[in-house]
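Q: What would this chain look like folded?
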Amino acid sequence: MADSAAMNKGLAALTLPDDVRDAIADWRQWLSAERRASNHTTENYLADLYAFLGFVREHRGNTPDIADILALNPRDFRSWLARRSMDGMAKSSTARALSSLRNFYRFLDRTGRGQNAAVNSIRNPKLPQSVPKPLSPQDAIAVLDNAGAWQDEPWLAKRNLALFTLLYGCGLRISEALDLNANQRPTGDSMVITGKGNKQRLVPVLPIVRDAIEDYVRTCPYAPNGNESLFVGARGGRLVAQVAQREMRKIRGLLNLPDTATPHAMRHSFATHLLAGGGDLRTIQDLLGHASLSTTQRYTSVDTERLMAVYQGTHPRARR
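A: My prediction, written as structure tokens:
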């Protein structure tokens, strides 16, 4: 599926009319400069749009220009949704893709290129209520202890340790951590994080987090400073999420952890372990940067499950 999306992206990028290519270039610039979307988010939006345009070309029999894009009707969008379902795309992925399209169409309207009301008439796929899948405290610590186990280069091992310690110690999204520049790294007891919607929040920083980052920076041969990326890859470029995810896959294979042990699971673990330790939901909401308390409340079900498991396994009456 990922290969199909990449193919659609490449083919569409080569054959799109000038007015569409110009609109996409302007949209990308707007996402980056005005919306302050992360590189990861922007690339996902673009991939979603290119895949959609590839479908339109196949569905309508021609390479769409702006007029064609604006003329699409509800039946066209429903056909696109049906195709994604036939291709086995997850509902969460389709919901994000639909959000990407709506964002692009709003941009076309905002820049005077035209409107299409049909895209807003399509209902979002109904998503099951997802429950975060954190690691246990022991497994989270084991991940940190083995963060560099697969690395021959000591500085890369320290980079992995610094990154995963930051995710677990501060509850950051992977995109938030990878978007940090060297001059934004924590030097005191807190740091300012710019999250979704360009919203900023103040996050406390434990000494162990700060020390891990400083140890990595001292040993990094590329000596990141100023506006350069804090976390870099083996060749000195900004570290991308796919590499961080690959490193976590190696660690969970070593520790025999489930597939749900991802970099994002370190953020889930941060929230769940705070809640288990007596943290209140409002504070955890602020630390995570959630716009809605209902999003944070998902962690209460996780903690309830953990408490029930402990109860069932330890209370004398539960074993009768």
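Residues 1-13, 314-320 have pLDDT under 50 and may be disordered.
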